[in-house]
């Protein structure tokens, strides 16, 4: 990379590092008193903090090359720790702060962090990833960034444990794994996303531009228009059908070229507004995807505004599966095609917001077409209030279900909904059909999911079903960080489709005819079963620890004990404390002071203040344990410093009245008594008032 250069008074170019050094000396030379030295760095600290926040946000939305991003995030986290340490120890680093070379190095460090941010932003999206096809390769750029980062960290005297052979091996494996997956993905996704030159389809770029214009507060100088169809070009079909009119809003017409179209009566508010025009223009361009319902444009029928869409002979996928049995190989192809549509949208940075079979239309050739877009929103926008919340709740991600108004809708939410759609297609029924909205919400937020219960009539069906279940479970993960990416799901569906191709176009059979006695069982919905679907094994429901504590408060001791006992198996520190408490007090008739002492000790050593208090006092009366006053005081002090009010009172009383090791320390005792009194402890308040001590 060439050096940045400027010119001296004689017009000769000089090295930028010399110029920067002189500027740094000017900036730092006037500093005098201790503390002034850090002043020029304060805006730099703020800049780094902002960059790191932006990197974290970009990483959270990463759609591709997650392992490569992870390797860089290890560095970002190390840098964040080092910067915070430098800020905290600014007085100790005054010499460095006064060094012009260090000042320049800090600026270089900022640039490296900016480069890392940009690289993560690029490789985590398809449109960004393509930038490296004809410039530096991703591999070279990644390795270059790693080297630049290590150099910048060394220049600032920051230390990390990331510069070793083991880390190099991990980085190398992560890079190769991601690049191999991307190669497979790009080779199989189809020309509606990636063209023959391995470049992102330019239509997708157009959509991104329109989308940005739609959300921009600035008026757009470039006219945005949706296609308008002359009403005269909408003909009545030559041969009528019973379903030519669907409900009160959709009627079938025919264009001059012979295409059947659905004319949907739609009142468009503020049709001339920038947002609506951009939305309609985006809908028109989405037809580039074979698996998104084609929008032809706007027109009028009998003076009523209509939106003209491609006609779907079979109606929605929900209507299809309720009427017909769908073969397993056909289900694979349908799932793959719907996934292609979602990849197309993801590449445009567009969220659908309502992924379910009712919004997938089926053509005469049984090609699924995603439809019924609420709005083509940018992925960082808050979700528009959804009036039909009761309809979409069955497919909603738990994080969105918890607070649908304030939690931002992301691609991870779409993936969860897609997992629910796959379940719906697999079992050919609406999710949670026997539960009301409150039951569904309660069930899902506790980690529950729909049943997975199937009969495997052949080895082929078993393999297909198992793969479907694996995909569904990966999309259903409660933790968004481990929820599958769309690329991972696509590659699994693509492999499944390659292993079990359809010999002919999809066929439909009347319900109950295709499977006969081997059809999927219908049974009541239970908590999530993430097992081999052919084994019907139900995983135990783990009651959250919070529910156990609430049960204890409600004096439902049996339920509380069961919860604590279960959570201790997962090494829950708080659960250990509660089990110790029950065994210490003999609740439920189970008294075991030795076991209680052991549990209190484990929880106390993990920093639980209540456990520290109980462990300290358990030393007085536990069989087989010799009382140690120093250990007692040590744990009681930890509990008091940890905010336990009872510990604050007892420790204060003991010091104030000389009850500890024969030592009387009124000042220290008063300190702890005041802490307890401020927490409204009546015993401490009484002691302080009796001794006329203000608090």
In short:
With 695 residues, the protein is α+β, with helices and mostly antiparallel strands. It has helices spanning 16-29, 42-60, 66-88, 94-97, 100-123, 126-129, 138-155, 165-188, 202-215, 274-285, 317-323, 328-347, 389-392, 398-402, 411-427, 437-445, 459-475, 486-499, 545-553, 557-568, 573-585, 593-605, 609-618, 629-641, 645-656, 666-678, 682-690, and strands spanning 5-7, 13-15, 245-246, 250-254, 260-265, 295-301, 304-310, 324-326, 350-351, 360-362, 368-370, 377-378, 508-510.
Textual characterization of the structure:
Residues 183-508 form the Protein kinase domain. This is Protein kinase domain-containing protein. Residues 230-246 have a biased composition (Basic and acidic residues). Residues 221-246 are annotated as: Disordered. One of its GO terms (biological process) is cell surface receptor signaling pathway. Strand 3 (245-246) and strand 4 form a beta hairpin. Helix 5 runs antiparallel to helix 7 (138-155), helix 17 (459-475) packs antiparallel against helix 18 (486-499) and helix 21 (573-585) packs antiparallel against helix 22. The protein is built from 27 helices and 13 strands. It has 4 domains: 15-188, I/LWEQ domain (Up-down Bundle); 202-310, Phosphorylase Kinase, domain 1, CATH 3.30.200; 317-518, Transferase(Phosphotransferase) domain 1 (Transferase(Phosphotransferase), domain 1); 559-690, Tetratricopeptide repeat domain (Serine Threonine Protein Phosphatase 5, Tetratricopeptide repeat), CATH 1.25.40. The strands form 5 sheets. A 5-stranded antiparallel beta sheet has the order 3-4-5-7-6. It has 695 residues and is α+β, with helices and mostly antiparallel strands.
């Amino acid at each position: 990379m060439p050096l940045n250069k400027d010119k001296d008074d004689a017009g000769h170019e000089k090295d930028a590092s010399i110029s920067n050094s002189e500027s740094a000396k000017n900036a730092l030379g006037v500093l005098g008193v201790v503390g002034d030295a850090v002043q020029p760095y304060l805006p730099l600290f703020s800049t780094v903090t902002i960059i790191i926040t932006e990197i974290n946000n970009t990483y959270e939305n990463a759609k591709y090359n997650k392992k490569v991003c992870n390797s860089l995030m290890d560095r970002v986290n190390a840098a964040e720790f080092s910067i915070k340490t430098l800020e905290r120890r600014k007085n100790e680093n005054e010499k460095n702060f006064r060094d012009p070379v260090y000042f320049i190095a800090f600026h270089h460090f900022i640039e490296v962090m900016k480069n890392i941010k940009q690289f993560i932003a690029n490789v985590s999206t398809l449109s960004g990833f393509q930038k490296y096809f004809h410039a530096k390769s991703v591999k070279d750029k990644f390795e270059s960034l790693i080297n630049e980062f290590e150099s910048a960290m060394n220049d600032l005297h920051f230390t990390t444990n990331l510069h070793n052979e083991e880390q190099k091996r991990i980085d190398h494996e992560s890079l190769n794994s991601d690049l191999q997956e991307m190669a497979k993905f790009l080779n199989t996704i189809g020309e509606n996303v990636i063209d023959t030159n391995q470049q992102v389809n330019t239509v997708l770029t157009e959509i991104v531009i329109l989308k940005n214009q739609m959300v921009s507060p600035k008026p757009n100088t470039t006219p945005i228009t949706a296609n308008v169809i002359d009403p005269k070009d909408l003909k009545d079909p030559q041969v009528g059908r019973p379903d030519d009119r669907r409900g009160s809003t959709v009627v079938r017409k025919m264009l001059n070229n012979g295409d059947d179209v659905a004319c949907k009566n739609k009142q468009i508010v503020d049709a001339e507004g920038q947002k609506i025009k951009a939305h309609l223009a985006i809908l028109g361009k989405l037809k580039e995807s074979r698996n998104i319902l084609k929008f032809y444009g706007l027109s009028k029928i009998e003076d009523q505004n209509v939106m003209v869409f491609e006609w779907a002979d079979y109606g929605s996928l929900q209507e299809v599966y309720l009427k017909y049995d769908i073969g397993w190989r056909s289900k694979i192809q349908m799932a793959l095609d719907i996934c292609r549509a979602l990849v197309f949208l993801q590449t445009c940075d567009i969220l659908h917001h309502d992924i379910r079979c009712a919004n997938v239309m089926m053509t005469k050739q049984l090609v699924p077409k995603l439809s019924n877009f609420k709005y083509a929103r940018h992925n960082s926008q808050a979700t528009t209030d959804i009036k039909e919340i009761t309809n979409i709740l069955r497919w909603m991600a738990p994080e969105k279900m918890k607070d649908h108004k304030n939690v931002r809708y992301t691609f991870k939410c779409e993936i969860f909904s897609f997992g629910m759609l796959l379940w719906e297609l697999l079992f050919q029924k609406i999710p949670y059909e026997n539960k009301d909205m409150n039951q569904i919400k309660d069930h899902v937020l506790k980690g529950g999911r729909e049943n997975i219960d199937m009969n495997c009539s052949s080895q082929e069906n078993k393999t297909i079903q198992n793969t479907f279940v694996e995909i569904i479970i990966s999309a259903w993960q409660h933790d968004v960080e481990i929820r599958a990416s769309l690329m991972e799901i696509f590659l699994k569906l693509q492999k499944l489709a390659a292993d079990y191709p359809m010999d002919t176009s999809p066929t439909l059979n009347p319900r109950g005819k295709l499977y006969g006695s081997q059809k999927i069982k219908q049974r009541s919905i239970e908590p999530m079963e993430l097992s081999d679907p052919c084994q019907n094994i139900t995983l135990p429901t783990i009651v959250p620890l919070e529910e156990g504590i609430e049960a204890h408060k409600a004096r439902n001791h049996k339920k509380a004990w069961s919860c604590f006992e279960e959570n201790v198996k997962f090494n829950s520190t708080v659960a250990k404390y509660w089990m110790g408490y029950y065994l210490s007090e003999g609740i439920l008739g189970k008294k075991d002071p030795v076991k209680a002492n052991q549990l209190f000790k484990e929880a106390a050593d993990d920093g639980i203040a209540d456990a520290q208090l109980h462990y300290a006092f358990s030393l007085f009366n536990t069989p087989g344990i010799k009382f140690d006053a120093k250990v007692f005081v040590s744990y009681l002090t930890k509990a008091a410093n940890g905010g336990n009010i009872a510990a604050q009172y007892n420790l204060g009383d003991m010091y104030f009245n000389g009850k500890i090791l024969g030592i009387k320390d009124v000042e220290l005792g008063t300190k702890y008594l005041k802490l307890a009194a401020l927490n409204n402890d009546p015993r401490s308040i009484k002691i302080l008032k009796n001794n006329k001590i203000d608090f």
